[in-house]
Write a structure and sequence with these properties.
It is built from twelve helices and ten strands. The protein has helices spanning 6-14, 37-51, 108-123, 136-144, 163-169, 171-195, 215-221, 223-232, 288-291, 294-307, 327-335, 338-342, and strands at residues 23-24, 56-58, 72-79, 82-87, 129-134, 199-204, 237-242, 259-262, 279-284, 313-317. Helix 2 packs parallel to helix 3 (108-123) and helix 10 (294-307) packs parallel to helix 11 (327-335). The longest helix is centred in the middle third of the chain and has 25 residues, at 171-195. The termini are close together.
Length: 345
């Protein structure tokens, strides 16, 4: 092949093939620019162009999927990337029966994100785009006022419904809610693909941790509903992110995904030598960006690229980079493959 396009590299690597050079991207939240489609699109486009990222993980506000069913938030008050939750439509586990399937085009939060995605597509016509989607189990926990890591509460909710009440005492209601959420997200994915999105960045945020959901519980409450969403996304590339410690990336070897992302530095997690079937995405500790440690960022990137030089691999942070990141750190990350950009294989 002569001159490769960004999409050709992205597609080849996620098909398990080699490309002419490695590709790199990073993502972060801009919490003051995520409250409407115009701001999110403009910020995403500018951030991508500034660092010439090879592909994009669109980062909507963390709560956008929970908003579909009526949760409300104070977007003037944040704790890290989470706005303060004011209300939950799941104050009691029995309310899970009231979570019904929605059409994407009838849901204001999803219409907003579709508008943003369309504008980003128009502004970055040649750059592969993935949309951030949380798993139905994660969304249910968000709705209930549980954090991405389950054992904490969402900012603003002091006494959320208990996990025992949800997953033991009201199991049927929870399955009803999860099915409704998964069908809603699947419809949203269909609309995203009509716009020309290239795939999903599908996040199971902490729910793979066996200390939270053992294998049987995960198989009951996550796997069937993950399948509904991922099957709807089969027309594009699917990168699954299993977040946090004890994230068990090997658990997803039989999932219909093309990429796998996890924190190689977190407790209980394997490194890049993990025996995984999907193309590995990551390799650099995202905490280094909070320190703006240019030397260590460069060292970590070079180490990951060297370790993975004989396999399809996408260089990226292990998770979203902190809000405090400075341009110097991001530039160093970009520069880690600069020579390979100039002199591809």
């Amino acid at each position: 092949m002569g001159s490769w396009t960004k999409k050709e590299r992205f597609d080849a690597l996620l098909a398990g093939e080699r490309a002419d050079r490695p590709i790199v991207s990073a993502w972060r939240h801009f919490i003051d620019k995520e409250q409407n489609a115009e701001d999110l699109a403009e910020t995403t486009i500018n951030f991508t162009k500034k660092f010439d990222w090879d592909w994009v993980k669109i980062n909507p506000r963390a709560t956008y999927l929970a908003e579909i069913w009526g949760n409300s938030y104070d977007f003037q008050t944040y704790q890290t990337v989470f706005p303060k939750q004011l209300t939950t439509v799941l104050p009691n586990a029995e309310n899970a029966w009231q979570i019904e399937t929605k059409k994407a085009l009838d849901s204001a939060p999803l219409v907003e994100q579709l508008q943003a995605a369309k504008a980003i597509r128009q502004g970055l016509p040649d750059t592969p785009l993935t949309q951030t989607i949380f798993s139905p189990l994660t969304v249910l926990l968000f709705i209930a006022g549980r954090s991405a890591y389950v054992y904490e509460t969402v900012f603003g909710i002091k006494n959320p419904v208990s996990l025992e009440s949800l997953f033991t005492e009201n199991r049927a209601a929870v399955h009803h809610a999860l099915h409704s959420i998964s069908l809603t997200i699947a419809d949203y994915v269909t609309e995203l693909y009509k716009i020309g999105i290239d795939g999903l960045f599908y996040a199971t945020t902490g729910t793979a941790n066996p200390h939270l959901f053992d294998e049987a519980s995960f198989n009951e409450f996550s796997r069937p509903y993950d399948s509904i969403v991922l099957d709807a996304a089969q027309g594009g590339k699917r990168i699954l992110h299993t977040c946090g410690s004890y994230a068990l990336p090997e658990r997803f070897n039989d999932y219909p995904i093309e990429g796998i992302s996890w924190d190689t530095k977190a407790e209980g997690n394997p490194g890049l030598d993990a025996d995984l079937k999907a193309t590995k995405v990551g390799g650099v500790d995202h905490h280094l960006f909070a320190e703006d440690n240019v030397k260590n960022i460069t060292k970590a990137a070079e180490k990951a690229l060297k370790q993975m030089e004989k396999e399809p691999f996408i260089l990226a942070p292990n998770c979203a980079i902190p809000l405090t990141v400075k341009d110097e750190a991001l530039q160093a990350f970009y520069d880690s493959i600069l020579e390979k950009r100039k002199h591809p294989c």
